[in-house]
Amino acid sequence: MTKRRSMGILILVMSAFLGGGPGTSPARAAEEGIVDGSSAMTELLSGTPVSLPEALDEALSRRPALHDFRHQVEARKDVVSEARSSYMPQLSASYQNIYGNSFLGVFLFPGFQYFDLNILSVTLNQNIYDFGRTSSQVKQARMAKHVAQSALNKEVLDLRQDVTVSYLTLLMAQHALKSAFSGVRDARHHLSEAEARLSAGVGIRLDVTQARVNLETALLQRIRATNDFRTAQIELSRSIGVKKNPHYVAREISLDRFKRSIRLEADIRLAYRQRPDLKQIEDSVREGEARLESAKSQNWPTINGIGQYFLSNIPGQALGITYMPNYPFSTFNIGGVVNVPIFEGGLISHQVHEARSRLASTNDQLSEAKLRVAAEVREAALNVRAALQRWSEARTAFESAQENDRLVEKSFKVGTARSVDVVDAETALRQAREDLVQARYDWAIQMIRYRHSLGDMSMNLPSR
What's the rounded mean pLDDT across residues 417-423? Predict the structure, then answer.
């Protein structure tokens, strides 16, 4: 009783500090933007209804980070096409118009022209064999594209977890908000009953004081619940990618859809296969192998075939040389070129050493990532089991609170319990109900995080 009375005094002091006593609680609540009654709760819950599939689809289309990663994937596709272009023939054309003269000709022989050269050449170059240089470059570009795709998949996985957790948090806040408004309504009713009994001479002042304490506690809980609800709305808007807060209201959803059996060792192996961040590093390893092959291939010669068509027009009156052609003539050449690297100042050897070191570094990163993934899966499994135990204990506590409320109410009717005991029992039952709801949603959120640790966010969600 001393502890309860001390709590009452503390709440009353806080009420005075905020601007009023128990009698002015409605005014203070109005100052906080909260109006008594079901109309206030209806106004809070009158936002934009949204389901989880709708929230996920909206986030996948809105989030700028996803657009960024998609553009990177498209850019990597173009890099693959660039590398493959080396397999195709390279056709080029050039035209030259060169006019030449001399100071002697200009000043001593008016109208003299040394030469006026017009040349058109068309060249066709085809890579015949380069000992795997082009193929390794294509493979390197393809693996770089896979790295970008894995990064996109990881961003999608993180986004799905972010939106789902935000959605469940909002749904949990909605239930807490309804419970908080119900608690204020019950506390006001109990206070009215206690004051009526005191006025009729059949009650005691302690019941009234305790009822006021319970009312102040309920009002504070309603303020916290309202703030948590609005914060959850903002967080869901952020996770979806909406700049303005449309005040989303989450639709109800069966939490059993998130349930998944835990087989720890098998799930760790599954995470090794499914986690996009691991796939990203594995693709980086393959990219490093291709880079090393490309660096080594530069030590080998390349063989190219060349075809060239040549068309020129060279006037022959210069210096009186009559046998120079003064009409267009053409020719063509067909041949091959073999380029053999002999000495490049150590460039190729340094590139090979660099590629080998990068490949070893990426392999170390892969090993470290596997250790991290295994630890994340185990930790997430522990959190799910702990949440399941809290849920079980909360369910037991709720059942006990129900039984206690029933027994206290029965005792009060026969005169063996006081009204304050009834109020305490109802308050305990309401708190047990809130704890049960919170424990259930906490289990669902931990299950979502466990699925995320496995790289599996595919859930059987209801259609839009």
Answer: 77
